[in-house]
Amino acid sequence: MDMKFKYFEVYTKNSRGLQLFTCQWLPFSSPKALVFLCHGYGMECSKFMRACGEKLANAGYAVFGLDYEGHGRSAGVRGLINRIDNIVDDCEEFFRSIYEFEEYEGKAKFLYGDSLGGAVCLQLHRRDPSFWDGAVLVAPMCKISEKLFKPLPGVLNVLTKIEDIIPKWKIVPTKNIIDSAFKDPTKREAIRSNKLIYQDKPRLKTAMEMLRVSTNIGDHLHEVTLPFLLLQGEKDIVTDPAVSKALYEQASSTDKTIKLYDGMCHGIATGESDENIAIVFSDIITWLDERATEKDF
In this protein, which residues make up the domain named Serine aminopeptidase S33 (predicted)? Predict the structure, then answer.
């Protein structure tokens, strides 16, 4: 593939004084639009989402990624999410700082969220419903799948009482997410060998925050108004396809599209065969191209 973009890595500090890693894939020509990446739980942007950034940049988009606090190359306790709102704050601050550059004035701006990143996108949208021109939601975490993590009756109340006392404890039992999420053996092993990815058991506070935000989103699906493309594998057992269908049905958006891929698992953009991933990104780029053109002045 001929590379039609430049790649940059930049460290920045958030409002809490933590160093955060950011990266960007910029086409050599003026971009069609801007795409801001929100990665999944335990993941990172520079390696895990590299193919995504490259595909979108080669298609003419300026792509920007941020490693959340405690993820990838950013500072913080590995795998610890003290508050989902902190992640949303950091994404909002970084994404808006990019959009303020003069060369991007008037460009359409899209969110791209993978799994937990889908929840981050929806939270960003709720903060300012008119700001974003659309979102690509890849197996978004609108509700924690009960097949993956379901507290026993009465346990949830206990966990809520102790989460701030032992937030870092890796006491949450869960199945191996990498095995469950990524179907292609070669890509699965590449993910395992990526030392920037958090692969230990979820920390208590992290699990509680993800449960909390996904429940909150699930209760307010009707408040979603932005244009979105929702994509998911029908065999996904990490995030529930039934909840994605509920998002599509209940969202107030007038421009909404859902695509469910037969035989695919959770990592449709990162863990399937090259042929399947090509299908997914063809759908994504087609959707973006139609809306980037509409924004053109």
Answer: 30-269
